[in-house]
Q: What sequence folds into this?
């Protein structure tokens, strides 16, 4: 398996014709062997970044390296080693699954046996003479994945692969991505605007919002950040005085009926309780509020608007 | 080598595609009309075809085909073949595959030219079939006893193909340029109608959309040289618009 960084972008900037900056200094680093969840709300710049990685958009500013080689001067060599699915499936609907694969089999120069292998892998081996236009969206998506996998790429780029799939389809897609990563060592970049999706399969996460990278690192690091951002909610008989007392030692804030301060553990909660009781304030509730990843995602994105 | 592979992939894409069916059915249209004319009222046609049935048959068949149907089918073929990628949203997969822009551009171009050749060949096949079948029902036409005149038929076909190269190159470029397939078709048909109305203009041999008809007309009045002026212009036009079309695709900022 390859080690190190498989995709690296440095100071990537991109503006569309309307002059709006779609990407602002994007520095992406995808470790080899990872499942890199590329997360961001719709319109954040995910597809633009991925299209730049595939050469579908002309790079305007910044460096783009894939497999350690600059993309501009090694386009064809790089594209031979990666597979992609950008947005909705790209299929010739008047052709069968096998004919669709035959087109790319010729282009990637792989053996005919691979067609049967990938059809089996995505569960489309018995579609026979059925044309792609008669396929369900899930089947089309799986056929697109089969095309992307035909040449056994080292890197797979999937842009919102679960869009439009039913819950079963989403689970199957996730399992397929995990299997490719664990059994074949394929590095996968998978974009999504749904955090829970990424959380369930990614080893590394990159969060993009309004064209800027807000976070990048292993999933655990994101989860540690979540702990750091947890809050302690306090309800007392006199919130105004309690705030005054707590503000001497803590970064406390008052909401409508609660006082909030950063949660630092059980012991610290007990210390806060004793402090308030000593000052003659009745403590009605002390509640550590664990902000889940979803909450964190909203926090990360909203803080930086 | 990559171009050959990319062209084979193009042939698979066009298998059972709209362009294929249009060329197959379109090429049979005029021969079928003549088959009906000969068979429904044979006595009206015996005399005028008595001298050389094939020569008259080819002359009239090609006239009906060249003036509007042939260039129209070529305009539609260019759009339909390119539209396969737009309609199926497959340009992005094509551009993300390890093919050079040259291979992508020229493999599709080869696919279009192959389809035009298929259209011309099938037209001749159906013309021949219409004559032979007519003879089965009405032997008095004596198609089977007359020399087909292969030389003239091949010459007519080759000159027609050369005259169509200008339209192919312009329409291919337009079809690549505009995602909406109505635009290149509308431009092409408008140019075709305009060229028909300009047929008596002294510079008509410089209007690409009139070249197919000019080749028909001038093959009938055999001159000494193989290539007429408009056919030379067609070749020049083909080179010019091929280069322009390729450069346009090569330097496009957004692909797929």
A:
């Amino acid at each position: 398996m390859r080690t190190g960084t498989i995709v690296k972008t440095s100071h990537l900037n991109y503006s569309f014709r309307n002059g709006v900056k779609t990407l602002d200094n994007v520095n992406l680093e995808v470790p080899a062997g990872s499942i890199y969840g590329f997360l961001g709300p719709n319109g954040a710049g995910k597809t633009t970044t991925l299209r730049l990685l595939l050469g579908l958009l002309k790079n305007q500013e910044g460096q783009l390296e894939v497999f350690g080689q600059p993309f501009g001067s090694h386009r064809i060599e790089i594209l031979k080693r990666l597979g992609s699915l950008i947005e909705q499936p790209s299929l010739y609907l008047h052709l069968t699954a096998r004919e669709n694969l035959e087109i790319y089999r010729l282009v990637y120069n792989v053996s005919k046996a691979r067609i049967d292998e990938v059809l089996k892998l995505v569960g489309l081996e018995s579609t026979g003479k059925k044309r792609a236009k008669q396929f369900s969206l899930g089947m089309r998506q799986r056929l697109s994945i089969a095309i992307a996998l035909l040449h056994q790429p080292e890197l797979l780029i999937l842009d919102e692969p679960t869009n439009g799939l039913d819950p079963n389809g989403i689970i199957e897609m996730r399992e397929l991505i995990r299997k490719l990563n664990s059994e074949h060592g394929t590095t996968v970049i998978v974009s999504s605007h749904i955090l829970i999706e990424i959380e369930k399969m990614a080893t590394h996460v990159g969060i993009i919002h309004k064209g800027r990278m807000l976070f990048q690192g292993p999933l655990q690091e994101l989860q540690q950040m979540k702990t750091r951002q947890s809050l302690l909610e306090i309800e007392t008989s006199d919130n105004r005085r309690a705030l005054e007392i707590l503000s001497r030692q803590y970064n406390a804030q008052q909401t409508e009926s609660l006082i909030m301060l950063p949660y630092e553990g059980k012991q610290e909660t007990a210390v806060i309780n004793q402090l308030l009781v000593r000052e003659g304030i009745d403590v009605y509730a002390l509640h550590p509020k664990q902000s889940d990843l979803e909450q964190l995602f909203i926090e990360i994105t909203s803080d930086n608007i | 080598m990559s171009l050959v592979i990319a062209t084979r992939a193009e042939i698979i894409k066009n298998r059972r595609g709209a362009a294929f069916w249009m060329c197959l059915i379109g090429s049979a249209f005029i021969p079928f009309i003549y088959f009906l004319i000969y068979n429904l009222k044979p006595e009206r046609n015996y005399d005028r075809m008595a001298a050389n049935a094939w020569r008259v048959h080819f002359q009239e068949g090609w006239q009906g085909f060249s003036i509007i149907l042939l260039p129209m089918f070529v305009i539609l073929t260019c759009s339909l073949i390119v539209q396969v990628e737009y309609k199926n949203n497959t340009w992005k997969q094509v551009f993300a595959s390890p093919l050079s822009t040259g291979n992508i551009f020229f493999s599709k171009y080869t696919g279009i030219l192959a389809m035009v050749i298929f259209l011309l060949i099938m037209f001749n096949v159906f013309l021949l079939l219409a004559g032979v079948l007519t003879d089965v029902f009405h032997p008095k036409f004596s198609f089977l006893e007359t020399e087909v005149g292969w030389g003239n038929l091949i010459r007519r076909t080759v000159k027609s193909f050369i005259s169509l190269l200008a339209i192919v190159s312009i329409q291919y470029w337009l079809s690549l340029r505009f995602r909406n397939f109505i635009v290149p078709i509308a431009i092409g048909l408008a140019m075709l109608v305009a060229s028909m109305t300009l047929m008596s203009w002294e510079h008509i041999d410089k209007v690409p959309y009139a070249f197919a008809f000019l080749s028909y007309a001038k093959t009938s009045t055999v001159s000494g040289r193989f290539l007429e002026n408009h056919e030379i212009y067609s070749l020049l036009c083909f080179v010019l618009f091929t280069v322009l079309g390729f450069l346009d695709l090569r330097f496009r900022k957004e692909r797929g």
Observations:
- Chain B has a mean pLDDT of 91.
